[in-house]
Amino acid sequence: MTFTLGKALYSAGKIGVFDSGVGGLTVLREISRQLPQEAILYFGDTARLPYGNRSQAEILRYVREIIGWMMQLEVKMVIMACNTSSALALEAVQSEFPIPILGIILPGARAAVRCGRRIGVISTVATAASNAYRQAVLEADQKAQVWQVGCPEFVPLIESDRVFDPYTRQVAQRYLAPLLRSQIDTLVYGCTHYPHLAPVLKQLLPAAVTLIDPAQHLVTAAAQELDVLGLNNTGLVQPTEFYVSGSPLQFAQLSQQWLGYEPVVQQVSLAQLEAASPVPLRSVEG
């Protein structure tokens, strides 16, 4: 399967947003705030979460499948609301698909260096191991220092609705300890799930530490891209469509507390995703 420009880029199309689960809802909320006129197609790959312990080859395969499937639904832009995917697959898929694809790491890193130079990053193990945030921060400010901590237990705890469980606080204390010893002045949510932990993290961090939610800055970058490309929606606003690869009911119930309503969620099978995986354009053309 290959894709060409044609129908893919048109202003009335939806913005595709995807994550491994409910984490991307933090990006969805920010789109609704900054770009209320835009229609959104949200996909949570809940059958294959967490992404943080997957290999780069697996992540790249998943991302290609998801974007290929979204292209069939004629999205005009894709926002990777997943730091692990952004770290391991963004550059590859940007060169393979004929629509704008935005990742979350660079906007978050640029925002961090505007706030401090002793920067901590909490993320999935895969994102931490990729050093993507350290590289992005140092590109923006060579004098900055970066400490990264992989937090493998956070996503499963959030996805199982255990944010306020005492055990979650214990886990957070353990993950934050080395960053506090390093006297960070800025902490980046290096996973879109982690803003859901804000009530817990704020209790454990000194008031002087600035929290950076890259979602805000990613959506600002998306707004600029839409404007430059002339892809702003000028028609009627369409309701958000929600899809998952796992249980629609579980996702709907879990996401209600962050959306303020229980969404109607449809399931996309892994077989459907695998069938949508494209042949990369680079391979076809050259």
Automatic annotation (TrEMBL):
GO terms for molecular function: glutamate racemase activity. Pathway: Cell wall biogenesis; peptidoglycan biosynthesis. It is an enzyme of class 5 (isomerase). SUPFAM superfamilies: Aspartate/glutamate racemase (SSF53681). It catalyses: L-glutamate = D-glutamate. Keywords: Cell shape, Cell wall biogenesis/degradation, Isomerase, Peptidoglycan synthesis. Belongs to the aspartate/glutamate racemases family. This is Glutamate racemase. It comes from Vasconcelosia minhoensis LEGE 07310.
